[in-house]
Amino acid sequence: MEKDSDPLLKQQQHHDDNDRSSTLPSTTTQPQRQQQKCTRFVLTILASLAVFFVLKLSLSTNSLSDETQLSPENDDDASSHHTTTTNGDGHVIVHNWNITYTMANPDGKFERQVIGVNGKWPPPIVEAQLGDTVVIHAHNALDWPTSLHAHGLYQNGTAQQDGAYLVTECGIPPGALRTYEYKIKQVGTYWIHSHVQAQYLDGLRTPLIIRDPKDPYRNQYDEEMIITLSDWYHNDSRSNAKWFLSKENPDADEPIPQSGLIGDRLDPSYHFKPGKTYRLRVINISGFITYYFSIDGHEFDIIEVDGAYTEPYRAKSIYLTAAQRMSILVKAKETTDLNYLIHADMDATQLDDIPDDLQLNLTARIFYDESHKSFAPSEDIGLKSVFDDFNLRSLDNTKAIEPDAILNMTVEQQMVTDGLNRGMINRVPFIHSPTPSLFTELTMGALANNSKVYGPQGNAYVTRHLDMIELVVNNYDEDAHPFHMHGHKFQVVARSTKERQWYDGVNRVGKWNLDKPVYRDTIRVQGHGFAVLRYRADNPGTWLFHCHIDWHFFSGMGVVLIEAPEQAQQRMSVDPILAEQCRQQGKFASGNAAGKMNLDVSGAPSGIYLPKDKPLIPPEDDEDE
Fold this sequence. Notes:
Blueprint: H1 7-11, H2 30-60, H3 62-65, E1 82-86, E2 91-104, E3 112-117, E4 126-129, E5 133-140, E6 149-151, E7 177-183, E8 188-193, E9 205-211, E10 223-232, H4 237-244, E11 259-262, E12 269-271, E13 277-284, E14 291-295, E15 300-305, E16 308-315, E17 317-320, E18 325-331, E19 340-346, E20 361-367, E21 405-415, E22 421-425, H5 437-443, E23 460-463, E24 468-475, E25 481-485, E26 490-495, E27 511-512, E28 519-520, E29 522-525, E30 529-536, E31 541-547, H6 550-555, E32 558-563, H7 565-571, H8 576-584, H9 619-624
Parallel strand pairs: 2-5, 4-9, 10-13, 12-20, 21-24, 23-32
Antiparallel strand pairs: 1-2, 2-3, 5-7, 6-8, 8-9, 10-11, 13-18, 14-17, 14-19, 15-16, 15-18, 19-20, 21-22, 24-30, 25-29, 25-31, 26-27, 26-28, 26-30, 31-32
């Protein structure tokens, strides 16, 4: 099938209509290009200075703005010092974020230092509409780097806005600022979070809601609500991460949260009006825990997952791994004689030990009538759920496309050569190099097509422009892992159906669906199982594919997909401000993983891997079976 007529290219909103013309030789001369780069540099510096003074002015008037800010105990989020203007294409929504420490006690058990915005926690919800532009002027008032990743946005042509620490930027240094700008070209339920180590577990995360003027389900619901699910730790993320990846933790036991939260509270309330239909945007903003979600006395229709519309799918309960999102339509009862509970149950199978004081089963109240306390009998389904997200189907009438290239990924978690128990893919843990992978791709010319320039621990895989890529993920770890892909949604075309079922690339096993497979950006790969994903490589840049359990990615469970280096170099160049922020932190803004302009990567992280003679499944896993 010709790629121009490929329906997947039409379905995926991040496809660049100028992909063909962008591959033609440039008619711009070298002196002209140098002059253009110089002009861009000057304009960028001037823009940065303007942003700095605007942010300073905003922060200096906090006493006035804070009068309208709402505390975390109220239903509305804290003010983010944002303004909205209109241009010819849509609204420009500008947020001024001073990323700061503050104090919070959302579970009522322990007040701790958290990371908030403008002295408030939780951070403000970001909302926009298709065609808008979202601008976040982010000032880092912390004592370590930070970044903002708009989880699920494609960032086509704007890879430096992806916020992936030491992949697309060096992070915002303490005391510095940068501007993230998102031209909204897709719709659905997303979220924004830090992408530095496990930092978002300290609270730097918030929903990103993008509404669709042509929402195909808009006439089927009256109101919408945002419901976040999260895990909550009393220790700060740096302390937990240091312990997790240490010789004191040889079994790689994940830090166990002290609480779970719904809507960043322990016991929130929501209100239904009889006869109305509600769109609930359910977002798991955890760093570890999978939740099983249900509502006593109510069924619902799933209409969206991870920002992609689905055919309506009736369910009584759902599960969401860390980073997954779903929109469900819930029809309210006609009477008010009973109120009902929402249940969000932690997946207890993830926990190596369950503390006696950990509340595994969270609840929130849905009030039809607050004048009485009569609640319907509990129907908490939890892990008894029969829901299977593989049964979802895309609303678009798009079939799976045969692949042009196949990437095989084996997922493991074992002791490696540095004496630590790490997560890894294809026997190599991903460890950040001092040069962001994107900057290597943009500055190494033809050598950017050689995966060696991204470093021995860079775990880089180079793909060609517009190829349909099949990603075969065989999980040899006994635990399930939620894998997230930056820069794309993928079709979920196959999945294992039982323990110790893997796909060898030839003999089809498990479940397969080539007709209207669902699109996602985060997929749960079963323990001792597999998933087969397909995506079109139509977004030049560098894109992480990693486990979204933050402890696992921190230890190395990820790869970088280096997409179309030639096209990336034609469309983008390293932002001078981001380059300077790299240099301020002793890192490189050009060259290979070690900052050199050749294949010599000495000085980059190396030598950490799982020897080939080690078994795929460690003996202790065999003993557990």
